[in-house]
C-alpha cells in the first residue's frame, strides 16, 4: 500500500478550523437556502453568497454541497429510511461517492453535514481513482454495516469511465468472496441515472440522486454513530 490519504489540503485549517469561519459558512448556507427556495439557480446563488461573505473556492464548494431548497430538503427527508427498514433488502451504493467520503473521513479531512442531513467532503476524482491508506478500512466499515443491518445484498455501482474502476471492482469482489458476502459490483457509464432508475434503496450524498431516487439511507451517519468515529465534522446549520 502507498502513503497516500485523503486528508486536509494545505490551508484547510485556516478556511474551516475557526469558529469565525464556521459561523460565516453557516450564514452563507442560510442565504443559499433562501435563494434556492425562491428558484434562484445554484451557480448564481453560490456566486452571490460567495461574494457577500468573501468566501474562498473550497469554502464555496462546501457551502454548495451543504445547501438545498426547502422543497429539496422536504423531499429528501420523506424518502430517508431507518436501519430497521433495511433487513432483507438490496442496497445500491454510489460507489466512488461512498468510498471516497469514508476514506476522507478516516483521513481526518473536514466533513460537512448539510441541511438534508447528508455528509460531504471536498475530494474530487478527476478521471482517475487512486487507492489510499484508508481504502481497505472504508470497505471494512461497509462490511460491518452489511452484517449488522442484515441487508440481503449490496450492489456497488462505479463509474466505468473512471480510470482504475476495474481495479477497485476486483478488490471489492475478492473481499466479498473471501468473506462469503452477497455483494455485486457493476461498472456503469452513467451511474447516477442507473441508480435512480434501478435502485429501490440508494446510498449516496449526490444531490441529484437524492432528489430523484426512490428511497435512500444515510450510511455515513450510521457508521459514525455505530463506530463512534472521531471526525473533523462541521455542521453547516
Describe this structure as you would to a colleague:
The structure is a single chain. The chain is an alpha/beta fold and 237 residues long. It has a domain at 73-235: 3-Layer(aba) Sandwich (Rossmann fold). It contains 11 helices and 9 strands. The strands form 3 sheets. It has a 4-stranded parallel β-sheet with strand order 6-5-2-7, sandwiched between helices. The protein has a 3-stranded mixed β-sheet with strand order 4-3-9. A two-stranded parallel ribbon has the order 1-8. Helix 2 (19-36) runs antiparallel to helix 3, helix 2 (19-36) crosses helix 4 (57-66) and helix 6 (95-106) packs across helix 7 (135-149). The longest helix is centred in the N-terminal third of the chain and has 18 residues, at 19-36. The radius of gyration is 18 Å and the shape is globular.
Key phrases:
three-stranded mixed beta sheet; globular; alpha/beta; four-stranded parallel beta sheet; about 50% helix; DUF5616; 11 helices; single chain; about 240 residues; Rossmann fold
In terms of DSSP E residues, the strand content is 5-15%
Helix content: 40-55%
Question: For the report, how would you describe the main beta sheet?
Answer: 4 strands, parallel
Q: Helix count, per DSSP?
A: 11
- Architecture of the domain at 73-235, CATH level 2? 3-Layer(aba) Sandwich
Structural class: alpha/beta
Please state how the strands of the largest beta sheet are arranged side by side.
Answer: 6-5-2-7
Instruction: Summarize the helix and strand pattern as letters.
Output: HHHHHEEHEEHEHEHEHEHE
Spatial shape:
globular
Regions with little confidence, pLDDT below 50 for 5+ residues: none
- What Rg is obtained from the alpha carbons, in whole angstroms? 18 Å
Mean pLDDT: 96
How widely separated are the two ends?
38 Å
Oligomeric organization of the protein chains? single chain
Protein name: DUF434 domain-containing protein
Pfam families: DUF434 (PF04256), DUF5616 (PF18481)
Domain DUF434: 24-79
Domain DUF5616: 84-221
